[in-house]
User: Fold this.
Amino acid sequence: MEKITKGIVGMLVFTMVFIGFTTPFTYADLPSQWAEDTISQAISHELTTEKVLSDYQKPITREEFSEVAVNLYKALGGEVEEEIHENPFVDTNNPIILQAYNLGIINGKSGTIFAPDEPISRQELSVMLVRTIKAIDSEFQPVTKEDMFFLDMNEIATWAKEEIHYLFEQGIIKGVGALSIDPTGLTTREQAIVLTMRAYESYDRIIRQADALIVAQTSEARSLDPHATIDKPSYRVMGQIYETLVKQNENMEIEPGLAESWKHIDEQTIEFKLKEVVKFHNGEELTSEDVKFTFQRGIQAPSTGHILGKIDSNEIEIIDEYTIRISTTEPYTPILPYLAHVGASILNQKAVIESGDDYGNNPIGTGPFKFEMWQRGESIELSKFNDYHGEAANEDLIVFKSIPIDTDRFEALKEGKVHIAYDISHDNIKETEENEQFVLKSSADLSATYIGLNAKKEPYNNIKVRQAINYAVDMEAIVEEVVNGAAEIASGPLSSKVWAFNQDLNPYSYDVEKAKELLDEAGYPNGFKTSIYINDNPQRKDIARLIAKQLKEVDIDVEVKIVGWGEFLDGSANGDFDMFVLGWVTITGDPDYGLYPMFHSSQFGSAGNRNFYSNEKVDKLLDKARTEIDPEVRKEYYLEVQEIIREEAPWIFAWTNKNLDGIRNNVKGFNQHSSRIDELSEVYLEKDM
Assistant:
């Protein structure tokens, strides 16, 4: 077998590499460009034969494909019996054909005639592929739901429709034209190899994922390079692959990560002592060189410059193999929460350099799971890293699937096709809670939904007007109608999950008479006309509609204006709007991230402070908090800032969202992290006894 395989590989290499040079082959001997990579993969899995690796455009015969099908059966783990049973055919005694017959992959064309030299049609080949999978798994049934869209559906034989339907849904078979399959047309050798390789990948994936932990989220990851993107779906996957120098526990407290300890050398410099004998997934050992490389790379990356930009690239000093000093460009107390961010994940220098621009598809970290496969548009597979320096993961394989539509994601959870479904729709809360097969996980997150009040424009430059509007809004009713009550009404600008959250603050009460009294004191006894801007977001439309309705009770006439996202961002940044609906996530869990950009007077406009709110005392407190080393003193600064902001009301304080995830009842060890980068290494599936 080894000799045959080497011969096949050699033939393909010769065929592909020397295109354009003088060869003994005609053009028909060369595979089409679209098939080259797939044929190469088929060779590596020993799915092909020497005979079909020439004359690629020639139709494949029944005998030739029978041999390919048996190779597929063996590649998927099937065992072929040595003993050949009685030969039912009068026109062949090929032992491989007889093996295919014994496995149920083929039948005679009519009676005892096999017609081995006759070309195989597309529908015949499709049936043989599905029969091969059935031979591997006797319980396999090609369940299909959706209709196909081939224009020539009526030409497909009744005995082949189910198989073609299944192969179409799995992406194994596609129309030759835009919407055509031509079921009775002949299959070329290269087409047969490609279809076989696709079938191998599809069912091999089913076999691998049968016992895996399946996680569904709203979108597919964009990249697995921490410096290339900042989107949540990517971060959720990367959080299992990579680790950071320090990390945050579920209470957002700083804990050791890849650094076992650290100390402040001065107000701008921290020395980190790395854990020793930590291995990357490629076998390389973690050293200070990797840390320096990571931060110098991340500082320059557009996606992570705001996370790592406070680090002075020229002041990263390697003390020894496991000790490194990192300095910031100015005193910056929140540096540790930023270093716990996924964007600060430590990379292996060698792996990044070797992969170049393709690193995002070939990630190498030190985490409990390592990257295995990315089936674009479908799934990402991560396997347990056996050389992990910490506590080993509970499951051998995690599969992340992208299911964008809320109802589809929920149905997949109901049917048991996924074990964890992130971001359950508010419309599915009740059913999730009532169904004994699931558990609804709910917790406050780090976000804040708010209605900005433009403090540089009349009448919003008047504190009493801003306070009056807060009293005039029944936020409990809005939360109930917009998100089915699945949110925490805000008492100030920060989520309760953020460190130094002021627990002594209370939400504004719904008090129409108090609102009218304040408007009268502010000089607006008859109210005024105004507008609220939103982008084309269904939830924000509902918020704006309800606020306009409620403010009408205090004679404030609100016009709701919907604009495009770009116009919305530009207009709010320029201070063109009276009121607007927006949100902010304090992703680091540190109040600096939630307060400084939103309320410091140096951050007007696109930097964050779209309310154009200014308070000299707030500025001074925020500046002090950034450089204060003592956490208790720092906390006091932030508590006072929140108190002032709540009192002066540059926002209508709306709510902080809740994390809503559905999990099957056999999922154990799943805990929602406030950052939503959950540690899935602790999760396991309770097996049936």
Notes: The longest strand covers residues 651-664. The longest helix spans residues 189-209. The chain has a mean pLDDT of 89.
